[in-house]
Amino acid sequence: MLEYLKFAALYIGSTIEVEYAHRNEAHRAVLSGVIANNVQFEPLNNSGKYGLTSEICPLFLRPLSDISDEEVIEIASVVFTHNDVSIRYMIDEGKNLINKMCSMKLNNTGYIGYICLNIFDLLRSKSFLLPWMGLSPEEIIARGWAKYKTE
Question: pLDDT at position 76, please?
Answer without folding.
Answer: 83
